[in-house]
Design goal:
globular
């Protein structure tokens, strides 16, 4: 929408153009500019960062936090119309909620 486009333009304008930032490979500025450049680029970065965060949470034993990100990814995949990918994330969350006795969360996950 035009509102979203205006937001992207404002974000990019606020970042400025500094030549020294252009020489740094994989700088946060470069990554953000790339992510905001197109819908496909945003989706790519969103999925990469989500997977990285989930892996990190699992590695440090924060399984619930990883599953919460998984539920967000499930919602993202449902929005894209890919129910098959969403199913695995929802299934993992449901199993965890049931195992830990979180009945209401399990019920809400079934509704998702």
């Amino acid at each position: 929408s035009s509102e979203q486009l205006n937001m992207v333009v404002d974000l990019l304008a606020g970042m400025g153009q500094k030549p020294e930032k252009e020489t740094i490979p994989n700088s946060p500025d470069k990554k953000l500019r790339e992510a905001l450049s197109s819908k496909a680029a945003f989706q790519k970065h969103y999925l990469e960062l989500s997977e990285l965060a989930m892996g990190t949470y699992k590695h440090i034993g924060r399984i619930r936090s990883a599953r919460r990100i998984g539920k967000d990814l499930a919602a993202f995949y449902m929005m894209l119309g890919d129910a098959r990918k969403a199913e695995s994330f929802l299934s993992d969350a449901l199993k965890m909620y049931q195992r830990e006795g979180w009945g209401l969360l399990a019920t809400n996950t079934c509704k998702d």
